[in-house]
Amino acid sequence: MLRLIRSRKVGPATFHRLLAEHGSASAALDALPEIARMAGISGYAPFSIAEAEAEIAAGQRARAQLLTWDHPAYPPALRDIPEAPPILWIRGRTEALDPPCVAVVGARNASSLGLRMARGLSLGLAEAGVTVIAGLARGIDTVAHEAALGPGTVAVMAGGIDRIYPAENGALADAICQTGLLVSEQPPGTDPVARHFPARNRIISGLSRAVVVIEAAHRSGSLITARAALDQGREVMAVPGHPMDARAAGCNALLRDGALLIRNSQDVLAALGTEAVPTRPVTAPDAAAPVLPPPSTQPDRPLPMRGRDQGGPVGLEGRILAMLGPSPTEENLLIRDLGIPAATMAPVVLQLELAGRIQRLSGGRIVRLA
To answer: Is the pLDDT of residue 290 over 50?
Structure first.
């Protein structure tokens, strides 16, 4: 099976068609050269035994396990989707997939309110016995994984099982393996590229009973996950956002088109059917603060160097603005999310206020101005 899916011009759809037509992976491999010749491809050779053995050795060095499509431990929910991954590399505890699973996805450059929503919702789901699934990206995904670390969370990766992306989530990935699971369909050593992310997203939704979207721009990877969920017959849920915040455009569009409006974890549990969800205690970090450094405010790349020191006032201005939106955010919560001392943030907030970029409201709240 590994040789068949890794052979040139064979993707998941072709893999399953060949398997159905020839009865076994071995028979399909034998037939491939003639099929390629009839398609006008000369000198075609399937993925070799040596290449397959090299991939398996690389997976073993990464302390990962290979699951084929017909393996008893292969997730049944994922096996049933169209173009199910023929091969999965996994690292961690497969039991994490036993409870009901819900995907929590959203913007990489999430606002402070969005991160707080993701943290509270994911912790509530974990406490109720639901496994939270996300894509290990910055922003919403990172916070969702952190909140659900105690009982176990599942991270689906776009690159190889040994290629943590973004690199700053390396410690988080190691922590996930202690109680949860890392999953990838790519060969070990594969760096994530753009075409891998939509394929990754179909696995996130395929493993889940429902997909919850928290902050998503009009065109974003989170909406690709939502579309995959609809195609797979999964429930799509979304958290509404301010209509003037571009990060809420995708969620609001999903709600307009019929997605279920979600306010908290209880709404998700009610939609799933609470009788099917056992309650379990969770030893988790304080829901008000992440256990790892706060995520970057840019999608999978560092903040632009607009000053002499990215940690200085100029870089901090960008981080503060990225965490704010048209909806008011409490200043003390913003300080927690940024992970900086109040004395460091205060002069920068004043500069932004004088420049007309933000506005202070009563009750210690701040909004970003257009």
So the answer is: no
Which residue(s) pair with 323 in the sheet?
Answer: none
Indicate the residue type of 56. I
Mean pLDDT over all residues of the chain?
Answer: 86
Token pair in block for residue 237: 């849920």
Distance CA 357, CA 63 (A): 49
Q: Torsion over CA of 311, 316, 319 and 325, rounded to 10 degrees?
A: 170
CA distance 358 to 370: 9
Separation of CA 52 from chain center: 28
Q: Which amino acid is at 175?
A: A
Q: How far apart are CA 114 and CA 251, in angstroms?
A: 12
Where do we find the tokens 């160097």?
305
The dihedrals phi and psi of 228, each to the nearest 5 degrees, come to -60, -40
Percent of the chain's residues with pLDDT above 70:
89
**Element spanning 101, H or E:** strand 101-106
**39-43, 175-179, 262-266 — which is least confidently predicted?**
39-43
How many Cβ atoms from other residues are within 10 Å of residue 258's Cβ? 8
Q: Count CA atoms within 13 Å of residue 77 on its CB side.
A: 19
Q: Identify how many contiguous H helices and E strands the chain contains and give both numbers.
A: 15, 12
Residue 221: which of 142, 106, 84, 49 has the closest Cα? 106
Q: Could you tell me how far CA 9 lies from the centroid of its own chain?
A: 27
pLDDT digits (tens, 9 = 90+) for 330-356: 888 788 888 888 888 888 887 887 777
Alpha helices in the chain (DSSP H): 2-6, 12-22, 25-38, 49-61, 76-79, 112-127, 140-147, 170-179, 196-206, 221-231, 249-256, 265-272, 313-323, 331-338, 342-354
User: Are 240 and 141 in contact, with CB atoms under 8 Å apart?
Assistant: no
Residue count of the chain: 370
List the beta bridge partners of residue 247: none
Q: In which residue are the tokens 């206020």 written?
A: 353
Q: Is the pLDDT of residue 50 over 80?
A: yes
> What residues form DSSP beta bridges with 66?
89
Residues in a beta bridge with 88: 67
Determine how many CB atoms are found less than 10 A away from the CB of residue 199: 18
Question: Which token pair is 131?
Answer: 């496994």
